[in-house]
Amino acid sequence: ETIAAMLEAPGANPLLVRALIQVESNYKPKARSHKGAMGLMQLMPSTARAYNVRNPYDPKANIAAGVKHLKGLLDRLGAVDLALAAYNAGEGAVKKFKGVPPYRETSNYVSRILSLAGIGGAK
Questions:
Q1: CB under 8 Å to 76, separation ≥6 — which residues?
Q2: How far apart are CA 71 and CA 14, in angstroms?
Q3: What is the model's pTM?
Q4: Which residues pair with 32 in a beta bridge?
Q5: Which of 27, 20, 4 is CA-nearest to residue 80?
Q6: Closest by Cα among 43, 4, 5, 52 to 24
Q7: What is the pLDDT of residues 59-85, one digit of tens each?
Q8: Residues of the chain with pLDDT > 70: what percent?
Q9: What is d(CA 95, CA 100) in angstroms, rounded to the nearest whole number?
């Protein structure tokens, strides 16, 4: 399984990545959002370019870039809930609000992923 292999990457919490994929694309490699996010981890075109992803619908490339992006957010923001909020709403929004932005979609997104990953009360 591609996902299982990719999740062995250093620094990736497999449960967190699986939960993120479930919420982002429901494991559909060809998923595309109305905002233009693509593939399993719903990479925006700018994120795909930043990680040199030629085909964002290729599961291996998509997961590799998505995991690197999430890990970068975790490293910079220092908390799982903040990293997930930034993955959803953008790092700028998290910095602007000095925490999870007060958007219902982002709040629900963070809660769903933490719950699916079995990570409780990360504040």
A1: 91
A2: 12
A3: 0.90
A4: 38
A5: 20
A6: 43
A7: 999 999 999 999 999 999 999 999 999
A8: 88
A9: 9
Neighbours of 34 (CB within 10 A): 5
- Kindly state the tokens that stand for 98: 């000095």
Alpha helices in the chain (DSSP H): 2-6, 14-25, 45-50, 59-77, 80-89, 91-97, 104-117
CA 97 – CA 46 distance, rounded (Å) = 23
d(CA 94, CA 37): 19
**pLDDT at site 122:** 47
Tokens 């890990």 appear where?
Answer: 71
Indicate if the pLDDT at residue 110 is higher than 60.
yes
Q: What would the pLDDT profile of 14-30 be if each residue is shown by its tens digit?
A: 899 999 999 999 999 99
Using DSSP, state whether 32 is helix, strand or coil.
strand
Catalytic residues: 24
